Hints:
By secondary structure, the chain is mainly alpha-helical. It is built from 10 helices and no strands.
Amino acid sequence: MWGRRQATQDSEDTEDAADAFRREALTHVDALHGFARYLAGTDSDADDLVQEAYARAFAAPRQYLPESNLKAWLFRILRNVFIDRYRREAKGPIASLSIDDVDDSVLASAAPPSFDGITSTDLEAAMLVLPEASRTVILLDLQGLDEDEAAAVLGCAPGTIKSRLFRARAALRELLKDYAPIRRLHGL
Length: 188
């Protein structure tokens, strides 16, 4: 009799823990959707990515280590879903500008431009011109992940994240550097 009662209690504890895990995971849905939107390019594809990421996370809650960062773990799952989808479809994201192709002299001399008049639509368009790797590192930074957490998501060293983030920001500045003065000239 005691064994049956103990098994019932263990089952209830497991269900409570799973419910708590799901509730906490769902608090990050907006951040995941924003990240997925930039990876996928459309809201419907982003919805699919987020749904698949949560399905994978909820199917394997024991793989999450409670002492680690749940948000970073979910971002990693989402990124892996994105990569898996492109591999399955036998097409990859098209990169128009490689982060490693930005000249170091441009990086060294790149002063932050004035962003007066730039709208979120303009910034989004500039972000979409960047390759997936550049968008990813910028978006992880914007979501508040530190270098260690972003490194865990991307599966690389924190120093690599610092370098990629520096180059991605410089590439974004380069794309937007002439934007504000042009808008002022045209009275926009």
